[in-house]
Structure formats: structure tokens, C-alpha cells
Amino acid sequence: MVDLSVKIGDLTFQNPIQPASGAFSWEYNDVIDLNRLGALVAKTICREPRLGNPTPRMAETEAGIIQSIGLPGKGIDYFLENIVPEYAKFEPPLVVSVSSESAEDFAELARELSVPDVDVIECNISCPTRNTTGGNFAMQEDHTKMVMEGIRAATDKPVWAKLSPNAGDLVAVALAAEEAGADALVIANTFLSLKIRTDNFRPALGNKFGGMVSPALKPIVLRMVYQVAKEVNIPVIGVGGVTKAEDVVEYMLAGAHAVGIGYAGFRNPSALTTIIDDLETWCDERGIEKVTDLIGAVKDDDMEMDPLVAASHGV
Amino acid sequence: MVDLSVKIGDLTFQNPIQPASGAFSWEYNDVIDLNRLGALVAKTICREPRLGNPTPRMAETEAGIIQSIGLPGKGIDYFLENIVPEYAKFEPPLVVSVSSESAEDFAELARELSVPDVDVIECNISCPTRNTTGGNFAMQEDHTKMVMEGIRAATDKPVWAKLSPNAGDLVAVALAAEEAGADALVIANTFLSLKIRTDNFRPALGNKFGGMVSPALKPIVLRMVYQVAKEVNIPVIGVGGVTKAEDVVEYMLAGAHAVGIGYAGFRNPSALTTIIDDLETWCDERGIEKVTDLIGAVKDDDMEMDPLVAASHGV
Amino acid sequence: MNDLAPDRKYTNAAIPVGGVDPHPDKPSGEFITDVVSNDWVNDEYKLLVVRAAERALTAYAGQFYHLLCPSPDGAEVWMRRPMSIYKVDKAATCLEFLYKCEGRGTQGMATLAAGDKFNVAGPLGVGFSLDPAWKNIVVLGRGVGLATLAPLSQLAAENGVGVTAILSARKSNLVMSEDLFDELGATSITVVDEDGSSAVENVEKILEKLIADGKADAFFTCGSSRLLKLMQNLGKKYDVPGQVAMEQIMVCGIGACYVCMRTFEVNGEKTLKRVCREGPVFNMQEAVGW
Amino acid sequence: MNDLAPDRKYTNAAIPVGGVDPHPDKPSGEFITDVVSNDWVNDEYKLLVVRAAERALTAYAGQFYHLLCPSPDGAEVWMRRPMSIYKVDKAATCLEFLYKCEGRGTQGMATLAAGDKFNVAGPLGVGFSLDPAWKNIVVLGRGVGLATLAPLSQLAAENGVGVTAILSARKSNLVMSEDLFDELGATSITVVDEDGSSAVENVEKILEKLIADGKADAFFTCGSSRLLKLMQNLGKKYDVPGQVAMEQIMVCGIGACYVCMRTFEVNGEKTLKRVCREGPVFNMQEAVGW
Ligand SMILES: Cc1cc2nc3c(=O)[nH]c(=O)nc-3n(C[C@H](O)[C@H](O)[C@H](O)COP(=O)(O)OP(=O)(O)OC[C@H]3O[C@@H](n4cnc5c(N)ncnc54)[C@H](O)[C@@H]3O)c2cc1C
Ligand SMILES: Cc1cc2nc3c(=O)[nH]c(=O)nc-3n(C[C@H](O)[C@H](O)[C@H](O)COP(=O)(O)OP(=O)(O)OC[C@H]3O[C@@H](n4cnc5c(N)ncnc54)[C@H](O)[C@@H]3O)c2cc1C
Ligand SMILES: Cc1cc2nc3c(=O)[nH]c(=O)nc-3n(C[C@H](O)[C@H](O)[C@H](O)COP(=O)(O)O)c2cc1C
Ligand SMILES: Cc1cc2nc3c(=O)[nH]c(=O)nc-3n(C[C@H](O)[C@H](O)[C@H](O)COP(=O)(O)O)c2cc1C
Ligand code: FES
Ligand code: FES
User: What is the Å distance from ligand 3's center to C251 Cα?
Assistant: First the structure.
């Protein structure tokens, strides 16, 4: 039987399937067995209690949804006291996602989150509805470097940087995060989007802009994971449009060590554990002994070309 | 009955519906009445005959397609001699899309295309599978400025710049194109994407990367059109995911003067003329007298907020 | 050599009727139910009856299911739709949903026919609760809000609590559940817009009469902001406790995403709560309308 | 107040059976056909018969239709699928398609049942042509390639041209159209992998015999690179002209997108042509395999 475990930094995860931040909470234990997941990932928390954005916070689009939740939550103190213990009842490592509008506060939050029950600090530096100077640091490499350096200095926990698909030069941002000391990169957050209702001429979301989420976007995020994984020396976690075991394989072939799943778990609460089962079957049927053999195994070094076209491309 | 005509620069188009470059040719006259379209838009041409990219050039994804055609064509001489006369048989203005890997050649091509039967030169500075220094100038504002300035100096025809959704700071690129003298902006080209086949571990396209096209992407492009239209003083043409009259309305509300349509015409060859009909009906049913009244008419200045949340946002 | 076929597969382990239940002790699950019937109740509402696995039948009044609606038009419906449980028929191992055909999701539901499969997740949320001290309660519902209140009346009947049901609708032919309420021994009063009887002032009179008659140990409502306000005012004035079932657009339905929040006023302080997790049934006095 | 419903509407003016044709003179159109039947021909192939508007019936051998396949799985099929016209039945105003169930598109087609609507665009492309000088032709097809060659044989029969059809398949129960070819008065020769008769050497012998017997004024093939090469070689050697129907993945089907290109060798120079517009039928000697 295939060995599904993957290592990211010094931490071992029993399989490469993780929930995506904001799409999961310990309450999913009402439906599935959380101990089967590769990791537990808490929703992004901020320092102060936040109410989040005006409703409606979600609208369906032609092929997916846009959402703008606005990082509501009861703040870090409540989180450490009441939520972390809920996650601690389960076995998989706990990844805590955190966001802030200033680099100093970000570092301080990371320090405060460095408690025994927290295994990884995921830095949500890419919330699409925040602006580049107020929380969405991942649009620009210098902002990314600055904020990640502060966090790195503040904690000994593994730190992961969650990057933005809205950045123009994602590879540069990724390299900046690596240089600043990130242990892994999570690619990607949501695509900044807008829907206008034609019945009342108003934006469909209370917050106007929202982040788009859809299986449709997988090829774009996959391209980003592929480009980044070729350039960095730290693990990449692919997040975007995973709805089945083949998608996990595709991300791993492109260079990802693991995947995060959001939408699929909304559509089918039992999706995550089923994808783990299916991935196991997929590997076993093909005699793949370690799932890590898939990482970066895309065959792209001998692209078959139409001979005539190859000639015209100087190959 | 509603007046569907729109002006872009000095040119009047009988309605805001145009085909998107690469998704249309005079051969569509076999199926629909080309004289009903707002404009005719020829596929991007280059100086030399080009064979284009290795096949397969298209693959279906979860929700859309990725494609990498590679701008095949018989070159500008053949185009001027044989293709322009085919388009000249029809009444709507002819928009000619052009691409090159160097700014000098781009300008020279624009000069050569400045013949009477050509009404607009659309500068495809955003082909996603070209790199930033070799044809995909629209990733960076300085490249955009440089290439568009050369073209502007070379021709008196209206020049439109087709921008890239892969740019990180699209507003900056748009402002650069405007400053360089572009008469209008076409937003946007396709999203750089990758699909890897899990049966043979190979990229699904012969050219590895491809541009994604799907109605799913409309909210992302709509957001770009909205952001850019707020900042520039030249018309914007929205291109991405239009499949019905309501989508045209949505783009116009966001600030577009017109829309380009690709995918919908592939799916339904009779889509474009039907969308024109439906748009007319939509406006008539609502007593809208001029379709131009819709441009930028989104009601976003008095967003309704949950009172509590509004307070927390300082409103 | 066909890699395209799996492009659109979704993955789940929803439990079919008669299937093995991997988690018999969990409060909620993803189930594949069998459609038994799906008939029009009036011009706007349909009643869907589905047969479900045993654990799915633990739903109680006020809880909801999150439904994966089929497409009405050949393209996907991307999000589930929350729907109150209208009736749990343990004998027939059936769940019933009463719904109004509105947008794509419910229009898709309307296409379901006997024999079709239908994926439902639940039961979810916190439903109605009855204080043993209450002998008589009043339920006031408008439109499809009655779908949510019907099983409460059943619960009350089972606990020997008397129910007066005030059923409000635009037109008399849109009043549903009258028979159901009658069957359960509830006294039902119908008010409609047609003859003005549904006017707030008139409903107010009816409620005050019930309070005076000792028939209103608690208030329950769903489906109308206006009627909620009325009950809140009377409840405050006459010290009648109450519960309200709220609605909000949902994504997860489980408490993870914070999409479904609404404003509540608890001890004079405003706060946001998740309709799917802390609700959909809330203390009536805490609700801030909708 | 429901803006969500139009989210997934597609727009078209496809012409239904009996509908007004806005462009009676145009060579191609978008049509909504009525499914008459859709039956299995063998384990892998189905025959779809649809009734179509008059103009849709102008298709001739080698031309194709671009089909908007329904979904096999509740999610969308995003691109049309090209399919040769298998038969035009003008009397019954029907089109027929013979297809192999492969991926999502053809699996979706397989779900069509009598009474369903099916959107087809066409007829498209350049089909087969017959030189009046030809008295006897040889068609050589493998697998579903026969679907493309069948109407050619009909065309030949109508023009008094004799046809020898060599039908190649993996197993004898996968040989289709034998009856059809027989019906048209063609001499059909079946070769299969099972007994080795489909081996290139054997087919070569059969073809050389036909040439020697004066039965091969022209060659036609479809469906196998290997057999194309064989016919090209023999064609060159014995100066037999020929035509081949090529396949390629398509997007527009009309000539606009340049997705469907293949390499051809014209007068010793390599060039790319659009399968949908310059083809799908090409001069056999110009094809560079596939
Ligand atoms: C806990 C709960 C229980 C419910 N019980 C029932 C019930 O028993 N019967 C019934 O008919 N309806 C019920 N609803 C409302 C039902 O969920 C919506 O009518 C349904 O989601 C609309 O889906 P649609 O695709 O048909 O419409 P859409 O096209 O999605 O929307 C149509 C209209 O309904 C509104 N709407 C969309 N989703 C919701 C939602 N989740 N809650 C409230 N309004 C929404 C939209 O804003 C829009 O105005 C309940 C809602 C909740 C939250
Ligand atoms: C002009 C023309 C006429 C054709 N006539 C027929 C016919 O009469 N009967 C028939 O069964 N098939 C015919 N084909 C092939 C048919 O188009 C493909 O089998 C079909 O598109 C596959 O769709 P799918 O969704 O089932 O498979 P997919 O899942 O899309 O693909 C399955 C396999 O088929 C290949 N394929 C996909 N599209 C095409 C294509 N356009 N051409 C060739 N291979 C493709 C893929 O590479 C893949 O290996 C024809 C193709 C062309 C170009
Ligand atoms: C409702 C919702 C809430 C989200 N909240 C967060 C969040 O708090 N922090 C974060 O980093 N990402 C958040 N995301 C983004 C997801 O983590 C993930 O990046 C995205 O959904 C793409 O993955 P998917 O395609 O599997 O859904 C949220 C997404 C959704 C749909
Ligand atoms: C097959 C194909 C070919 C294309 N070729 C070109 C091209 O030559 N030049 C160009 O500027 N855009 C090209 N595009 C992009 C389209 O013009 C358009 O920007 C894109 O398809 C988005 O619009 P849509 O969602 O309406 O399809 C092409 C798109 C497709 C699908
Ligand atoms: S719907 Fe996700 S928290 Fe309520
Ligand atoms: S499929 Fe578009 S040119 Fe042939």
C-alpha cells in the first residue's frame, strides 16, 4: 500500500490533503473523521475581534462563487483560549492562519501564537480584499519580504506564506518569501473579482469586491505552482480547485508537496476524506509506493512536437 | 427602440457587440449575418508567416478550455492582399489585431496596416504564452508605454491596446497605455494556465502553457474593467466570459463601452447576433433609450451595509 | 488514453439508503436520498419527499438540511441551498421539504422526480426548544416560514403542548399546512392580504387576545420581519418569551466559513452570530430583523 | 428580485425543426434537432438519428457537424465535438451520426433519447469529391473511420461508381456498416486483428490485387495512420490518386481559431492547413499522418 505521508520542513503529515483556511473548522467533526486529515487548518484570525464585511458575503457566479467574508472572528485571545483547545482534541498537526494590517503586529501575533498546540503558522498575507499596504502584502515582493522577515524573527514555529494569485510576478514574490525565511508557500488565495447585479445595478456583495473560488480556476493556480516550484527550494502547497484525487496528483506532478481544499468541502462535506481514500487507490492501482514520488514528476523535458512546428521553433 | 450605437474615439459602432480577436473570421459569414455586428475583428497577425504552436492546441478543463495557438498565420503581406478584402465586403468597421516581438517591428507593422479598409489597429501586446520581453509587453507598465508610443507615432488610425489579466497592477499598465496615446483599452486577453494529464504525466498542450478561456472568469475580468474604467479617460472594451445580453449590461455598468466575445461564439455560432437582439429587448423592456446610458452606471456610491458592520467599518 | 473523462468528477462518500454508515454516532452526515415524490402544493410551493438512511432521520423542528440541488438548465448549481426540515416520517424513513420555487437552486429541486437521487447534508443547526413549563404556544408564520414552523407544532403536540397557529399569506390559496396544523390538533387562524386580515394591527389584536386567554406561554415565528417585530414588541410588553428561525445565505452550513452571519443584540450589546451554527433558531428578543 | 437565475443562460438562435430559417442561403447554420433514436450498434458504437430543419440536410459525404454534446455527469461539456455525417436521409429529414463512446462528449451523446433536443452546427468543411473519370474506387477504413466513408460509398453508388470497401477492425463484432456497404452494392472485404487478416502486409496484397484488377481508380481512407501510409505508398507506386479524411481537435469548426491545424506536404513544401476548413478531406499524398 502506498505511503501517503509527506514532509514539509521537519513536520510529517500523514497525507497531502489539508483543508484550506476559512473553509474548515473543528465543527466539521460533526460530519467527517478529522483524524484522517493531513492537517487541521484554522480560519484566519486577527488580533482584535472583527465583525467582518457587510452581507451578503457570497454570491454565485456563472461557474463558482465570489465571497468577501472580511476575516470575522473573536480575536487572538479568544482563539488561544477557546478554539485551539478544540483543535487539540484531534491528532493531525494544527496550522493556524493569521492576518494583520501591519508588519509589526503580524510578528507580534506570530509570537503569541507560538504555543505548544500550534504546529504551523500560516501567514495570510494575501487577503484579496485588503489593499497592498494594509494586509495584502503578497502583491509585491518587497512588502512580502518585509512582513515575512518580521514574522520569521518572532517565532521558531514553521511559518508558511500564503500568496496571492493577483500578483503579477508570483515567482518574484515567492522568492522573496523564501529569502525571508518562509518554510513553505501556500499557493494561492482567491482571485479578486466583482459581480454586478443587472436587476438593481448594484454590486452583488456587500463589500463590492470578493475573492473568486471555483474548480474552474485550477489551471491558473496549477501554472503558478509549477512556475514557483521550479524556482524555490522550499515546499509548495497547492490550493485552488481540488475536487478529486486526480487534482491532487496534478498539483503534485506540478511540484506541490501537498494541497489545500476549500470549495470541494463546501460542496461535499465528505469530500476531503474521500479524496484521501481515492488518492490511496489511485496510487495503489499504479504501483506507486510513495506519494512523494509524484512531486514534480511532470514529464515536460521532452515535449513531443509536430516535427514541422518543432523546426519552426528552432528545436 | 433603444439606440445601441456606441462611439469609441471618433468611430461609431452600430452596437457594443464585437467578436474577440482569434475567435472570429469572415468565414463566420457561413452561419451569421456579419453586417449585424458592432465590428469585425481579425485574428492577430504577425509580420512573417508563422506555423503556430505544437498540437494539441486546446484542452478542455473542469470549466472551460486552455489553448495555445501561437499566432499562426500567413504574414502581413498575405493578410493585406487576401484577407482584408474579404472583410471589406462587409459593413462594420474592421479591427485588425497585430502582434510582434519588438517595439520597432510593432510600429512598422502598424504603419503598414494603415490602409483605407482597416479602421482600427488592435495591439495584442498581451499574448500570454509570449514572454515579457518578447511580445507580452502588457505585463509591465514601462514595456507597455514603450511599445505603444512607437505604434502611436507610426499611424493615424485609432490604436487599441489589448491588456493582460496576468499583470499584477493592471491599472498602472492601463494608465501607461493611455499616456502613450492609446485610443481605447481591450481588457483582457487570456489567463496563463497549465493542465497536466494524470494518465501520462505530460502537459495537455503541445506548448505546455496555454491561455484559459471560460465564462467562469468573467467576475475577474469585470473587476479589472471596473478598476481601470474608474482611472482612465479612454474607452474600455470588456472581453471575457460574455455569453448573454446580461453580461454585456454587466460590463457596461462596470464602465465598458463595448464587449468582445470569444467563447460564446465557439459554443453557439449564432450567439453574437442573438446577444445583440437580446440586448435590444433587455433595454426596451426597461425603457433604456441609449445603451450608452449604461456605461459606468453601477450603483456603488451608497453601498447598503448591515448597520453594525457599517459602524465597524467607520461608515 | 482518455484523461478528459475525470475532469468533472466530484468526490464524496455520501451515505445511500441502506448503505453502511461509517459514522453512526456523528450528529450530521452527507446522505444520498431517494426521491419518493415531489408535487406542487400550490402555484408556488412544492413538497419533496425523500427516503433517507436512518441517521438522517434524527432531524428535529427548526433544524435544516443543506441540499445539493440538481441543475435546472444543464449547467452546474455551485452551492448547496439550506432548507428547513418540514417533516420527519420515521415510519416511512422519509424526510420532507416544503419549498418555494425561486432561483436556480429551487428550480433545480423542482425537476426531481420519483426514483432520482438527491444529496442532502444534515441535519444541521440548532432548532426550536420547548420549555416544560409552557402549556400553550403561539406560532405565527408567513409564506414558506410555515415550512419551518410545522414540525414545531408536531413537537408541541407530542409533548402535550397546545398550539395556536396563525397562518399568514398573500392569498388564501397560498396558505399551506392548514391541514397539517389541524391534524396535529392545533387551532389554526388564517389571515390573508386579500381581505386585509393579515394587517399587522389585526394580527396584533389576535395575539393580544391569545395572551389574555392564557394561550401564549411562548411565541414562535419565521418568515417575516414585520411579524417578528410585532411579536418582539408584544413579547417585551407582556413578558412572553419567544424564538425565531432566521435565514441567511450560506456556504458551508456547518460553522466554518462565517458567510451566514446576522446581527443580534445580546444584553444590550450588538454581536454577529452564525445562522447555521448558533441558529437558525434564536432567542426572539435578540434578533435584529432581516 | 432574482438576479441569480440568468447566471448560466447561453444565448443562441439555433433553428428548430419547422422553425423559420433566417438565412436560407447560407451554407451552414446552428440547428436544434429532435432525437429520433440513439441505439447501440455494437459494444462501443452508437448510431444517433436526429430530425433536422431542411437546410441541415445539405451535408454531403466527408463533411461534418459540430455537436453540442449534453453532459454525462451533471457538469458542462465546454466544447463542441466534430462528427462526420454518417447518413443524410432526405425523405425522413434526418441526419445520422455513428460514433464511438469515448470521453465526456460522446458519453454525453450516448445519453440522448428519443424526443430530446440536440444542438448541431453545420454542415462544415470540404468533403469527398469524385472525379467523373473514376469508374471504381477503393475505400479502406478502420474503426469509426468507416462512419466517415459510408456516405462516400453512397455518393459513389449514386454516381454509378463501383466501390470496394475494406473494413478493418479489432474484432469481427466491431465491424460496422458491412450491411450498409452491401446495401449500396459495394463489395466489402472484412479484415480483423483477431485472425491477423488486418495486418498491413495482408491489406497491401488485397489492394495490389484490386489495382491489378482495375478496381482502384482512386483510394479513400480514414481512421488509421498505418493504413494511410500504406495507401500513400501504393498510390505513389501505382499512380492511384486518393483522398483522406483527417481528424484534429477543434474549437470553432468554422475556420477562425486555427486550433485544428495539421501538417501537409504540398509540392515538396511543408505547410499547415485547417482540418475544419481546408478539410477534413485532403489530397491523400499531401497528408503527413497523424
Ligand atoms: C435555515 C434556513 C431554512 C430555510 N428553509 C426554507 C424552507 O423550508 N423552504 C423554503 O422555500 N426556503 C427555505 N429557506 C430559504 C432557501 O434557502 C432559499 O429560498 C433558497 O436558497 C433559494 O435558492 P434559489 O437558488 O432558488 O434562489 P437564488 O436564485 O439563490 O436566490 C433567490 C432569492 O433568494 C434569496 N436567497 C438565496 N439564498 C438564500 C438563503 N440561504 N436564505 C434566504 N434567502 C436566500 C436571494 O437573496 C434571492 O433574493 C431557508 C433558508 C435558511 C437559511
Ligand atoms: C472531422 C471529424 C470527423 C469525425 N467524425 C467522427 C465520427 O463520425 N465518429 C466518431 O466516433 N468520431 C468522429 N471523430 C472523432 C470525434 O470528434 C472524437 O472522438 C470526439 O470529439 C471525442 O470526444 P469525447 O468527448 O468523447 O472524447 P474526449 O474525452 O474529448 O477525448 C477522447 C480522445 O479522443 C481524442 N479526441 C478528442 N477530440 C478529438 C477530435 N476532434 N478529433 C480526433 N480525436 C479527438 C482525444 O485526444 C482523446 O484521446 C471525428 C473527428 C473529426 C475531426
Ligand atoms: C468562504 C471562504 C472563506 C475563506 N476564508 C479564508 C481565510 O480566512 N483565510 C485564507 O487564507 N483563505 C480563505 N479562503 C480562501 C481558501 O483558503 C482557498 O485559498 C480558496 O478557497 C481556494 O481553494 P478552493 O478552490 O479549494 O476553494 C476562503 C475561501 C472561501 C470560499
Ligand atoms: C482559440 C482562441 C484563439 C485566440 N486568439 C487570439 C488572438 O489571436 N489574439 C488575441 O488578442 N486574443 C486571442 N484570443 C483571446 C480572445 O480574444 C479573448 O480575449 C478571450 O477568448 C476571452 O474572451 P471570451 O471569454 O469571450 O472567450 C483567443 C482565444 C481563443 C479561445
Ligand atoms: S454557512 Fe458557513 S458558517 Fe454558516
Ligand atoms: S477548429 Fe477553428 S480553425 Fe478549425
Answer: 12
pLDDT score for B135: 65
**Alpha helix (H) residue ranges in chain C:** 104-109, 145-158, 178-183, 200-212, 225-238
Q: ipTM, 2 decimals?
A: 0.94
Neighbouring chains of B at 3+ CB pairs under 8 Å are A, C, D
- C75 and C149 housed in the same domain: no
pLDDT in tens, D263-272: 899 988 888 8
Catalytic residue among A46, A123, A127, A283: A127
D3 interaction partners in chain A (CB closer than 8 Å): 197-200, 204
- Say if D130 falls within a structural domain: no
Report yes or no on D166 lying in a domain.
Answer: yes
**Contact state of D7 with A306 under an 8 Å Cβ cutoff:** no
CB atoms closer than 10 angstroms to residue A119: 17
Q: How far is CA C215 from CA C61, C131, C136, C221, C226, in A?
A: 21, 15, 5, 16, 22
Q: D231-241: string of b/e by CB count within 10 Å (b at 16+)? A: bbebbeeeebe
CATH number at residue D222: 3.40.50.80
CA distance C271 to C263: 6
pLDDT at A132: 54
Which domains can be identified in chain A, with CATH numbers? Answer: 6-312 (3.20.20.70)
How close is the nearest chain A Cα to the Cα of C259, in Å? 6
Q: Name the band, by pLDDT with cuts 50, 70 and 90, for residue D289.
A: low
For C268, the 3-state DSSP assignment is: coil
Residue nearest to atom 10 of ligand 3 (CA): A21
Q: Model confidence at C1, in pLDDT bands (50, 70, 90)?
A: very low
Cα of A279 from ligand 3 centre, angstroms:
22
Q: Is the CB of D73 under 6 A from ligand 2?
A: no
Establish if A1 touches chain B: CB-CB under 8 angstroms: no
What is the model's pLDDT at position C44?
Answer: 87
Active site residues of B: 127
Q: Are residues D152 and D282 in the same domain?
A: yes
| Domain with D65 in it | 6-124
Provide the pLDDT for residue A313: 43
pTM attached to this predicted model: 0.94
Q: How many domains does chain C have?
A: 2
Cβ-based contacts of C14 with chain A (< 8 Å): 268, 270
User: Which residue of chain B is at minimal alpha-carbon distance from C10?
Assistant: B62
Residues 6+ apart with CB under 8 A from C79: A58, A60, A65, A266, A267, C105, C250, C251
* Whether residues D120 and D150 fall in one domain: no
Q: Tell whether C276 is covered by a domain.
A: yes
Q: Which of C124, C150, C182 is the last residue of a domain?
A: C124
Which residues partner with D124 through β-bridges? D64
CATH number of the domain residue D71 falls in = 2.40.30.10
| B 32-71: CB under 8 A from D | 32-33, 43, 51-52, 55-58, 60-65, 67, 69
Q: Which residues of chain B have pLDDT under 50?
A: 307-315
How far is the centre of ligand 4, averaged over its atoms, from the C-alpha of B22 (Å)?
5
For residue B227, report the phi and psi dihedrals to the nearest 5 degrees. Answer: -65, -45
In order of A142, B237, D142, the CA distances from D146 in angstroms are 62, 47, 6
